[in-house]
Design goal:
Layout: H1 3-8, H2 44-52, H3 59-70, H4 72-83, E1 87-91, E2 97-102, H5 105-116, H6 122-125, H7 131-143, H8 150-163, H9 167-177, E3 197-200, E4 216-219, E5 225-236, E6 242-249, E7 256-262, E8 273-278, E9 289-302, H10 308-342, E10 346-347, E11 350-351, H11 356-385, H12 390-421, H13 433-439, H14 442-445, H15 450-463, H16 469-475, H17 483-497, H18 506-525, H19 528-539, H20 556-564
Parallel strand pairs: 3-6, 4-6
Antiparallel strand pairs: 1-2, 3-5, 4-5, 5-9, 6-7, 7-9, 8-9, 10-11
Length: about 575
């Protein structure tokens, strides 16, 4: 069997469950239960992106992961982990502060599955060309079943290179952080087989402005060890084993340093801090987020004193890549579920998918999803090549922010429209569409909301006037292939030259850059019926203000079949 046919092979869809006849009616015109789909085998755009960006070698291992995710039991675990949300236990029976978060069995099963497939560690355990691409693809696949669990997995992935700024800490923690086992026990690291790392940076008064942090670090008599006093407004995944945080050194206001805070101290006692409460969030409910207070908390400095933001920024960048991969996964899964539903549900004498108006909506969603996947794969590829290619390093620095901003914005819109394709069925929790819809906005808020991300792009241009040059060069690889793209590229060059006006148009600049980059990728690597429809709608103005407003020249059926996995 060839690799291609192996990927295409998948379990037959489950037959609809047999039920006793109702006394008043027969149940019919309902789709079969969702499940049994190999999410990689069905996704032409993702498989093509893997091959294009140097990760074809990872296809068999990703196929194995996709098969595990296709198991209805994995889908059930995603549902249950969000149905039974985490609980905080601040004290034990005797009044001792313990800071323990209780999570549902299904959460732990999902974490075991993800760690076994190296979602948290692949580039560090297997550092070869395409390893960041393969890991981004695994994150995109995982997000299609349950994305809350990706928060600690992404932070663990992103925290490893930051810890390497302190070789002693890295030697202690990296083997546990990259282990493929999963150990949820509250124990000192010396007694565990695996560990997770988190991040606690923002404060009430500062939010994304880390230089407004007021937490103070007081040096102890041990070199590199400090006592922290202060608070953090958002500490996600407080069931981890250690976390990175930032604070200003006592007597040096504004000099922010980075620190590692372990839950357990070397002597086997618990560290001194308090988890005050868990956040009651819109979405991402399977993953706990908390508020924390430091009161003599022991912390080990990571990186140079006063260079904390520079030290932590690599973690921020890689977690932003995680946001982009989750957004792409949500777009892909909500589209795929809409296709599953509309191909089996009939109305007004025909299958929904065959109705021209519904075909327009589905094709429009499919264009957005394929463009998101292409952008994600190109970004992850640049991160793989950044260590040896300065141009790719500059590309990845600015496109990480651009992709995070744009894909997060589009995921919410896509999830809503795909939900509506199901009618009332999509509004019910059992369909899981409400969960995907609630999950999408997290990616916009986490690691910098929209304005913060756009300002980061402007700061990159301020530091380096040619920061966007590698992006423009990538866009112009498709010069002459589409007049709409050529006009957009000319607009971008003019806008970048107007430095005094850039903040006011920052969102438009980032949006148009993202669209132009997506268009260039689609023109070069996707079928013409996809790229032409994308350029005409997103760049040429042949589009309305909602999905389903594509021009009549778009080949709806071809676009839909490609997204369903029946056309290359």
């Amino acid at each position: 069997m060839t690799e291609a046919t192996a990927l295409a092979a998948e379990p037959a869809p489950r037959a609809a469950a047999r039920h006793a006849a109702h006394g008043t009616h027969e149940v019919f015109n309902q789709p079969t239960p969702y499940g049994g789909y190999n999410l990689l085998a069905r996704d032409h755009a993702l498989r093509e992106g893997l091959a294009r960006e140097g990760a074809a070698w990872a296809a068999p291992r990703l196929d194995a992961f996709a098969r595990d995710l296709s198991d209805p039991e994995a889908i059930r675990h995603g549902y249950m982990a969000n149905r039974y949300v985490p609980e905080l236990h601040t004290h034990d029976n005797y009044g001792h502060r313990i800071n323990e978060v209780q999570l549902h069995h299904s959460w732990h099963e999902l974490m075991r599955l993800a760690r076994r497939h190296e979602v948290h560690s692949l580039p560090w355990r297997n550092p070869q060309a395409g390893s960041h691409v393969a890991r981004a693809a695994s994150s995109m696949l995982m997000a299609q079943v349950e994305s809350g669990s990706l928060c600690p997995l992404h932070m663990t992935y992103a925290g490893v290179p930051v810890l390497r700024n302190n070789p002693a800490l890295s030697a202690q923690w990296e083997p546990l952080l990259t282990s493929t086992s999963y150990d949820p026990r509250y124990r000192p690291s010396s007694e565990k087989t695996a560990a997770l790392i988190g991040m606690a940076m923002t404060e009430k008064q500062g939010g994304s402005d880390l230089r407004a942090n007021t937490t103070v670090a007081r040096p102890t008599q041990e070199a590199g060890v400090y006592e922290l006093t202060g608070h953090k407004w958002f500490f996600s995944a407080p069931m981890v084993d250690c976390f990175l945080t930032v604070a200003q050194i006592e007597g040096s206001p504004g000099q922010i340093s980075c620190f590692l805070v372990p839950f357990w101290l070397p002597d086997g006692t618990r560290n001194r801090f308090s988890i005050m409460r868990l956040k009651d969030k819109l979405g991402n409910r399977s993953n706990p987020s908390s508020e924390i207070e430091y009161n003599g908390t022991l912390a080990w400095r990571v990186g140079d004193e006063g260079k904390g933001i520079r030290t932590i920024i690599e973690m921020v960048s890689l977690t932003r890549l995680g946001c982009a991969s989750i957004s792409a996964g949500i777009m892909r899964q909500t589209l795929f579920r809409a296709l599953h539903h509309t191909q089996q549900r009939s109305a007004f004498g025909a299958k929904l998918v065959d109705k021209p108006l519904m075909s327009n909506v589905l094709a429009d969603l499919a264009l957005e999803s394929e463009a998101a996947t292409a952008l994600l794969m190109r970004l992850a590829g640049s991160i793989d090549r950044a260590a040896t290619d300065d141009n790719e390093a500059r590309f990845s620095r600015v496109v990480t922010a651009i992709a995070k901003y744009w894909l997060a914005k589009r995921a919410s819109a896509n999830a809503f429209e795909a939900l509506e394709c199901h009618g009332g069925f999509g509004y019910i929790e059992d369909s899981m569409m409400p969960r995907f819809y609630r999950e999408a906005p997290v990616q916009s808020v986490w690691e910098g909301s929209g304005n913060v991300i756009c300002l980061d792009v402007l700061r990159a241009v301020d530091r380096d006037p040619d920061a966007l040059l590698p992006v423009l060069q990538e866009i112009e690889l498709a010069r002459g292939m589409d007049a709409h793209l050529d006009r957009t590229t000319a607009w971008l060059r003019t806008a970048i030259g107007r430095r005094d006006q850039m903040e006011g148009i920052a969102r438009r600049l980032v949006e148009k850059t993202a669209l132009a980059l997506q268009a260039s990728l689609l023109l070069r690597f996707s079928p013409s019926y996809v790229s032409q429809a994308f350029c005409a709608s997103r760049l040429g103005g042949d589009w309305g203000l909602a999905f389903g407003t594509l021009g009549t020249e778009v080949e709806f059926r071809k676009v839909i079949e490609r997204s369903w996995g029946e056309r290359g």
